[in-house]
Design a protein that fits this description.
homodimer, alpha/beta, UDP-N-acetylmuramoyl-L-alanine:D-glutamate ligase, 36% helix, globular
């Protein structure tokens, strides 16, 4: 029997402009990326989210065809799907949000279907901490692992609720600037220490093209990012990381530090794949052979044999 | 018999201001850091440089006591030693040069002593490309490996001479911004490709707290930086890297890609040690046990066991 992964997060339409091109309305949202990546592993994956009447059937089918359970996705009749428009400047280093239409997300009360209330692993995609709390409260059993993704916006405007969520999760996944903002510590070692004290036993700090750090007690694992010739569109990189990370952990059911290191590598591999094309475009082309090649590249990139006297 | 390392570079006095403190006049210079680090390996190390009459005997003794051959260090009577004053701001991310007094460096014509003219490995520390060229022209035999360190200043104002040096070396060691400046390519993979075409078969791109990349043909090795609780003074990090890198390669005499990966780890370990105190202060405390502990930390930081199907 497969282990169960519950994903709570947004489903969206995005308009994206990068130095390489522009799209007006493509499939997006944290839960979408997480689901598309996680469902490549052997597991039962369900999404809890909300969309509007405009959400295309073809996009629902795309997710269903990957075996994702969408019975927790509410379709609001007469409502419009969450819409985000952003622009990447300066070699993709700066992201500017041009427009955010919350639409159906504004009054979203997540409803977890009965058969999804005892997942092995929960992935809380970047979303309002209030919604994340509401989702956690509906669980009937304590999951093996709860993973949280969040961002600076919630740190700035919803800190008390965010602190409540952080206290309840086992793993937090944020980027380096967010770790510094959350703690006021510049040193990532000190920032991770402080976040440990807020609750999470595991802290993942994502550094984009510089890879990711996983902190647990006094152990640190450093995963590089695959050096890519070109990043086409960074949208969804963090969500794809989360999808690969939780997908691999759910499949294996092993949350030891050693296995979590591998999950970080799987997550990084997924992210490296996503950013090579616009939005979720590349994820449709995923094959196990592509993953195997990337895992091999990670291994080659980092392996050295040293004799320590 | 030991292999020979020839170091060409500056010896200096530095005034440094960081958020953690301030020093008015401490020992500095690329060749100083390189020599202090490289001489921790089993090798014969000689420095070619220039100092003024003000250069303290105690500092010459410090270097000599580590077995460094200073017969190529010219002491200009009536001259003053190269002086650099800088300030680190914004969590050490920004370095501002407050003052540069070239002094004896201005008319420096390097003179390599006869017994140093057939080194196994040459390390050209960051210095005027004209001086670097002059040094290379005095060699009697082709070294096994020539390694170049340089910086943005020479790229901006001495590009033709710099291009000549780059064409003559086997390894170049620069930071990510400099790689981008040198090539006009933002992607470090593309930048390394282009630098390969300029001459160097090996390209090292240093990324500070994010580690370093080593490029050779189609192979890439990614070394992390040790996550430190606090960086005290980044001065000399790149030079210490160069010292550890060339010191290890000279000791082993093995310039294969696999061994060069280890050299990058040794270089990174040296750099992590230097930045924990002001200037060269920590290097005096170096012990083989410290190095062994850091190598172990690098190994733990990067090791993962993955089965690829």
């Amino acid at each position: 029997m497969n282990n169960k992964l519950l994903v709570v997060g947004t489903m969206a339409y995005d308009a994206i402009s990068t130095p390489f091109g522009k799209v007006d309305k493509i499939l997006g949202g944290a839960a979408t990326y997480i689901g598309l990546c996680a469902s490549r592993f052997s597991l039962d994956c369900g999404i809890v989210s909300v969309v509007g009447e405009d959400f295309e059937n073809a996009h629902l089918e795309l997710l269903k065809n990957q075996g994702i359970d969408l019975s927790g996705v509410e379709i609001v009749h007469g409502g419009a799907t969450f819409f985000w428009s952003g622009e990447y400047l300066n070699n993709l280093n700066t992201r500017t949000t041009l427009e955010t239409q919350l639409n159906v997300l504004e009054n979203f009360n997540p409803k977890i279907p009965e058969h999804m209330k005892s997942p092995d692993i929960v992935m809380l995609g970047n979303l309002s901490p209030d919604v994340q709390l509401q989702a956690l409260e509906q669980l009937k059993t304590k999951p093996k692992l709860v993973v949280l993704d969040t961002m600076n916006f919630w740190m700035e405007h919803f800190r008390p609720a965010l602190d409540q969520v952080i206290a309840k999760v086992d793993v937090i996944s944020i980027n380096d600037e967010e770790a510094r903002q959350l703690t006021g510590e510049y040193s990532l070692v000190k920032a991770a220490d402080q976040i440990h004290q807020m609750g999470p036993k595991h802290v993942i700090i994502k550094k984009g093209e510089h890879g990711a750090l996983l902190f647990h007690k006094n152990e640190i694992f450093c995963a590089p990012a695959l050096p890519l010739e070109e990043v086409f569109d960074p949208t969804g990189a963090g969500d794809s990381f989360a999808g690969g990370f939780t997908g691999y952990l759910t499949q294996t059911g092993d949350i030891s530090f050693n296995n979590m290191k591998l999950a970080v590598i799987y997550g990084s591999a997924m992210a490296s794949f996503t950013v090579e094309k616009f939005g979720t475009e590349n994820l449709v082309n995923y094959t196990p052979a592509i993953m195997a090649a990337r895992l091999k590249a990670f291994k080659e990139l980092t392996t050295f044999e040293i004799e320590i006297e």
